[in-house]
Specification:
The protein is an alpha+beta fold. The protein folds into 2 domains: about 70 residues, Multidrug-efflux Transporter Regulator, Chain: A, Domain 2 (Orthogonal Bundle); about 150 residues, Alpha-Beta Barrel (Multidrug-efflux Transporter 1 Regulator Bmrr, Chain A), CATH 3.20.80. The protein has 8 helices and 12 strands. Strands 4, 5, 6, 7, 8, 9, 10, 11 and 12 form a 9-stranded antiparallel beta sheet that branches. The N and C termini lie far apart (about 100 Å).
Length: about 270
């Protein structure tokens, strides 16, 4: 190029300055996103110095996760109004991604806490503990057979996805009146623990106070073993057990291979005592 000045760069020079590969510039030219200022008949291509500004715009939009086609469309029709509209939508998207990451972190933290609790606690031994209040997202179980029960639990899992503070596996609730009748496999509610209180009729509080709890390995889909051991332990100490018995599933299919290695924490509030 006879009239070439210091304001123009070859493809190689331009790529080195911008820290990209020559192939990137060729690709951008091919799709019509970013082309050289000059193309000579002999195939030489030259970029004008101020094209660096446009390229930096492309890089900035790529960092925001915009695909090249969207970047191309925006650059061809850019305006302050279009930019504000685009940034508003991008900000909402980032907020959704942040919330998703927070949810993932809650899940990880809860699963780690569950495994740590199982490692520390004696298995199949009832004990008295002091519990802080917790909030539970609950769903009623009205089915009387396993098939429909599974469907209702699946619906609960879908429901909990609407709540940003939901943590961990699904727990279940049995009633003392059923257990006293020898009905050990009847669950009246399932629940998911929430990080904090939520405004919903489906949220109930598990009150703070004293609970007898037992970590039970070898989940048999009924409460007979833990119920009998906890009841005996409570009677020996003069405690009256509450109406709701809770099962927090701590080790399940996510961490162990079979039901025989599942671990649940069975817990019931108590009062009285000697």
């Amino acid at each position: 190029m006879e009239n070439r000045t210091e304001l123009y760069f070859t493809t190689g020079e331009f790529a080195r300055i911008l820290g990209v590969k020559k192939h990137t510039l060729f690709h951008y030219d091919q799709i019509g996103l970013f082309s050289p200022a000059l193309k000579e008949e002999n195939g030489y291509r030259y970029y004008f110095v101020w094209q660096m500004d446009v390229f930096e715009v492309i890089k900035a939009l790529q960092k925001l996760g915009m695909p090249l086609e969207e970047i191309k469309e925006y650059i061809e029709n850019r305006s302050p109004e279009r930019f504000m509209e685009m940034m508003d939508e991008k900000e909402k998207q980032i907020d959704r991604e942040i919330e998703h990451l927070k949810q993932m972190k809650r899940f990880i933290r809860n699963e780690k806490d569950n495994i740590t609790a199982v490692r520390k606690a004696p298995l199949n031994v009832p004990m008295l503990v002091e519990r802080r209040e917790e909030f539970l997202l609950v769903s009623d179980i009205t089915a009387t057979d396993e098939r429909r029960t599974a469907v209702e639990i699946a619906k609960h899992v879908r429901e909990q996805e609407k709540y940003h503070g939901a943590m961990g596996a699904v727990g279940s609730i049995c009633l003392k009146e059923d257990l006293e009748k020898g009905i050990f496999d009847k669950y009246v509610k399932v629940y998911t623990k929430l990080e904090k209180k939520a405004a919903s009729p489906k949220v109930m509080k598990r009150p703070a106070g004293e609970y007898v709890e037992m970590y039970y390995r070898g989940y048999a889909w009924d409460m007979e073993v833990p119920y009998k051991r906890i009841t005996r332990f409570a009677e020996e100490n003069g405690w009256v057990t509450g109406e709701m018995w809770y099962e927090d599933l701590l080790l399940d299919e996510l961490t162990v291979k079979g039901y025989e290695d599942y671990v649940v924490r069975v817990m019931v509030p108590v009062c009285g005592g000697r």
